Amino acid sequence: MKPTRGMTLLELMTAVAVVAVLVTLAVAGVQGRIGGQRENAATRELWGSALRARQLAISTNQPVRFVVENNILQPDGRSYTVARWERLKCGDDLSNPDLWNLDACPSLTCVNKSCRAAPDCCSETGTDIVIPSTMNATSIHALCFLPGSGRPVLNKMDCLRGSLGTPATIAAAAPSDGAIQFKFTSNRAKSVLMVEPLTGLSSVMDCDSLAATSPNAAYKDVRLAAACAVP
C-alpha cells in the first residue's frame, strides 16, 4: 500500500500566499463597491437637499444656505466632513424673527457664522450629509437660496444681505452650470450640480454619462458637456 504524502512546507506557504492574495482582492473589491455606494448616496443627498433648501426659501421667506464643515462628530463617534442647509433668521433681534425688513436679512450677527457655531442664527437646519473621504463637495459651500424667490447665489455666506432688492447683483452672483462640482479621488468621474439661475431648480448629472460624452448630437447635453469641461 502506497504511503500517504503530506504537504511540504513550501507547498503550504504557496497555498497560504495564494489564499492571502485572493482575500486581499476580494476585500478591495468589496471596499470599492461600498465606497462607490457612499459616493452615490452623498451626491444624491446633496441634490435632494438643494431642492429642499429652495422650497424652504420660497415658503418661509427666509434665506437658506449650504455650509460644508470639517471634523464634525457624528453619532458613530467618528468625525467627518459634512454638508447641510441652514434656514437663517432675519432682523437685528433674533428673539423677534418676524420683525425685519429686506435689508436686514439675514441677521447681521449670523452673516459669517455657521449655525453650528451660533444655533440662535437658524430657524431650522437640515440633516448632516457625510461626505466620503474620496469626495470633495466644497464647491456647494455658501450656496444660498434667497427668501421668497428661491433664486440661487453662490459664494455668498451673507446671502446678499442688503442687496436683495437689486436684480443685477443677484443675477451676477448666480452659479454657472459648472460652478458646483463633486470631485472624487476614486475612479468615479465627477458630478455636476446644475442650478438654474432664475428658478433655483437643480439637477445632478455625472460627467461620464451618455449625455456628457456622446459624440452624437442627438444624445448629447451641450450644457452638461460644457459644465464637465470646467476644471
Please give the structural blueprint.
Blueprint: H1 9-60, E1 64-73, E2 79-88, E3 122-125, E4 129-131, E5 135-136, E6 144-145, E7 152-153, H2 167-172, E8 181-184, E9 191-195, E10 202-206, H3 210-213, H4 222-228
Antiparallel strand pairs: 1-2, 1-6, 2-3, 2-4, 5-8, 6-7, 8-9, 9-10
What is the helix content? Answer: 25-40%
Summing up helix and strand content along with how strands pair, one would put the structural category as: alpha+beta
Number of helices: 4
Query: What is Rg?
Result: 24 Å
pLDDT averaged residue by residue = 88
Straight-line distance between termini: 75 Å
Low-confidence stretches: none
Shape: flat
Q: What percent of residues are in strands?
A: 15-25%
Task: Give me the count of strands.
Answer: 10
For the largest beta-sheet, the strand count, sense and barrel status come to: 6 strands, antiparallel
What is the string of SSEs from the N terminus onward? HEEEEEEEHEEEHH
Q: Can you give keywords for this protein?
A:
10 strands, alpha+beta, flat, 231 residues, four-stranded antiparallel sheet, 4 helices, six-stranded antiparallel sheet
